[in-house]
Write a structure and sequence with these properties.
Blueprint: E1 9-20, E2 23-34, E3 38-42, H1 49-56, E4 64-69, E5 72-73, H2 80-89, E6 90-93, H3 105-115, H4 121-134, H5 150-162, E7 168-172, H6 180-195, E8 199-203, H7 207-213, E9 216-221, E10 224-229, H8 231-236, H9 241-255
Helix pairs in contact: 3-4, 3-5, 4-5, 5-6
Length: 256
């Protein structure tokens, strides 16, 4: 786990609420994450984890509450053009890879920095090749997504997110769609990013991985953060009955 130097939070949510129709998904969520930390959000399906992650980079507007990400007041950013600088700082990797099938691996990685940030194509290409080496995909530059395994496609998606040179990277159940043998190769890349000091926020069902890499773990249930703390406390001395029940079920399935 990382040694955290900075005391002020890089990410801070205060009393965040979000409803879809008549269903309240987030019910007053407050949390803070410091620069360089790896934060894991765990909890049962439907507890608001993915919605919370999408609120962090403005993909979903909140109904009330405040979200501070660095210098950005995210809840005040409503127009797409106002969200572009935030998305430069906060990249997101989804469960589905969302790669362009008609573009090569290299083109997929280069598109956003060139087209959105208007960066030099030559500079972006150099960076993209370095990122492919970082995610252990050197030699796949000219391949198309359909020619790659699921784990390789997800690693391309991570490289694409990193190409924006973000301060924060969000991972939304990035191993959920993968075959078990491909999960470890994606987790290895995330582990390296965490160790290098990248601020990472993960929604994950990989409990052992969360215990290994997290600096702080948040347990969500029914739209609230029920318990949070260092992984040693969350996984080995949980205080809340719902957390104990959740871990009992999830870890028993993992052991089986």
């Amino acid at each position: 786990m990382n040694v955290i130097q900075q005391k002020a939070p890089l990410i801070e949510l205060v009393d965040v609420h979000k409803s879809f129709g008549g269903t309240e998904v987030l019910k007053g969520v407050s949390m803070s994450i410091r620069q360089g930390e790896t934060a894991c959000i765990i909890g049962p399906s439907g507890s608001g984890k993915s919605t919370l992650l999408r609120c962090l980079n403005g993909l979903i507007p909140v109904d009330r509450g405040t979200i501070r990400v660095g210098a950005f007041a995210v809840e005040q950013l409503r127009r797409e053009r106002d969200l572009v600088p935030l998305r430069h700082q906060v990249s997101m990797v989804f469960q589905q890879y969302n790669l362009f099938p008609h573009r090569t691996v290299l083109e997929n990685i280069m598109m956003a920095p060139v087209q959105v940030l208007r960066e030099s194509r030559d500079e972006v290409r150099t960076r993209a090749l370095e990122l492919l080496a970082r995610v252990h995909l050197t030699g796949k530059e000219a391949a198309y997504p359909a020619q790659l395994s699921g784990g390789q496609q997800q690693r391309v998606a991570i490289a694409r997110a990193l190409a924006m040179q973000p301060a924060i990277i969000l991972f939304d159940e990035v191993t959920a769609a993968l075959d078990p043998e491909m999960v470890s190769e994606v987790l290895a890349v995330i582990r390296d990013l965490s160790r290098d000091g990248m601020t990472c926020v993960l929604v994950t069902h990989e409990m052992r991985f969360a215990e290994e890499v997290a600096d702080v773990v948040f347990f969500t249930d029914r739209g609230t953060i029920v318990e949070s703390g260092p992984p040693a406390d969350i996984f080995h001395a949980p205080g809340d009955l719902r957390l104990r029940s959740f871990l009992g079920k999830v870890l028993s399935r993992t052991a089986a």
